[in-house]
């Protein structure tokens, strides 16, 4: 049985008076805590039940209406909440980092390749400033002298900071940049500095043993140590460095030119600046670069068995060289005779 018209009008009036807007927070509806108007009709109906409340009571339709509206509001709130969550999760899965283009990759490789070798450039600037602005007394105090180095051991390294002339300085600087640029970028300035110092010491001791009367200036021994150190660098990082085949080729070409130059100038007296060509410093500097490179440098192939054997052999070679130099300069070298 349908409800009376007066009762329907009263229901609509109460619903309008007690209606409140449902608040929304971040895409989710917050349902009101207080009882709605339909629940109020349910309570009134329970307090004053009619004679036939099961079938033809107006409260039955009102209860059905209230429950339907309450269910509808709950569903709509849940629907909005689920849609907001799925939208956020979808955005997280769809957004991906943009892949680099070929131009960007080439740009990064070019920037990495053009990064300057700070140690090599610092040595060149210091040597050029000392050559152009330093007094001549410093040259005699820093060069390798046959007898003076025994009481002044700093000459084992400082002779690489003075040169015979501007052309000598320019050639050493250009070759040092050419052979040391990639080497410092791949192995770091600290390892290159140790190799540089080791090449100078080996060149000085080799000259003292093979050319004991020659005064030595210039960083040629260190430059040749950098040159031959490319061979162990290629072995240690084979497959991970560009133009690996060009480096052994450059070692062969420059080594052959050095041998030819030594043969041409052998026995030719002094140069225009009054200095002999210290071929022993060049040869011993180049010979020291190979074992020192295996002992100092690091690479992706360091754990390979052949590289480990090369390291062991290099350690033995350095030990034999140090022992031989100690015995020679302790028992056979007469410092007073060459001073």
UniProtKB/TrEMBL annotation:
The keyword Plastid does not apply. Residues 42-62 are annotated as: Disordered. It is found in: Membrane. InterPro entries: Peptidase_S54_rhomboid_dom, Rhomboid-like_sf, Rhomboid_IM_Serine_Proteases. The chain crosses the membrane at residues 109-132, 156-180, 192-210, 216-236, 243-263, 275-297, 309-333. Keywords: Membrane, Transmembrane, Transmembrane helix. It comes from the Eukaryota. GO terms for cellular component: membrane. Pfam families: Rhomboid. It is a multi-pass membrane protein. Gene3D superfamilies: Rhomboid-like. Residues 152-297 form the Peptidase S54 rhomboid domain. One of its GO terms (molecular function) is serine-type endopeptidase activity. Belongs to the peptidase S54 family. This is Peptidase S54 rhomboid domain-containing protein.
């Amino acid at each position: 049985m349908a409800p009376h018209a007066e009762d329907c009008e009263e229901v609509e009036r109460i619903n309008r008076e007690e209606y409140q807007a449902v608040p929304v927070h971040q895409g989710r509806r917050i349902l009101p805590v207080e009882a709605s108007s339909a629940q109020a009709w349910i309570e009134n109906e329970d307090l004053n039940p009619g004679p036939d409340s099961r079938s033809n009571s107006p409260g039955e339709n009102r209860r059905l209406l209230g429950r339907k509206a309450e269910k509808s509001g709950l569903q709509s709130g849940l629907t909005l909440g689920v849609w907001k969550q799925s939208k956020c999760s979808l955005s997280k899965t769809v957004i991906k980092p943009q892949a680099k283009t070929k131009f960007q990759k080439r740009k990064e490789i070019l920037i990495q390749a053009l990064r300057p070798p700070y140690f090599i450039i610092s040595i060149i600037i210091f040597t050029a400033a000392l050559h152009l602005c330093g007094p001549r007394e410093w040259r005699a105090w820093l060069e390798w002298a046959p007898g003076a180095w025994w009481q002044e051991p700093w000459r084992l390294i400082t002779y690489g900071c003075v040169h015979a002339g501007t052309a000598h300085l320019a050639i050493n600087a250009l070759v040092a940049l050419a052979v040391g640029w990639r080497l410092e970028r791949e192995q770091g300035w600290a390892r290159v500095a140790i190799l540089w110092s080791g090449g100078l010491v080996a060149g000085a001791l080799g000259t003292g043993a093979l050319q004991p009367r020659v005064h030595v200036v210039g960083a040629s021994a260190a430059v040749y140590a950098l040159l031959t150190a490319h061979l162990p660098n290629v072995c240690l990082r084979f497959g991970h460095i560009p133009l690996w085949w060009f480096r052994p080729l450059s070692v062969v070409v420059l080594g052959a030119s050095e041998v030819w130059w030594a043969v041409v100038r052998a026995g030719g007296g002094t140069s225009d600046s009054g200095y002999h060509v210290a071929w022993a410093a060049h040869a011993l500097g180049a010979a020291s670069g190979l074992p020192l490179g295996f002992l100092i440098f690091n690479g992706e192939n360091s754990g390979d068995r052949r590289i480990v054997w090369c390291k062991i052999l290099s350690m033995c070679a350095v030990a034999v060289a140090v022992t031989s130099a100690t015995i020679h300069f302790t028992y056979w070298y007469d410092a007073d005779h060459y001073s």
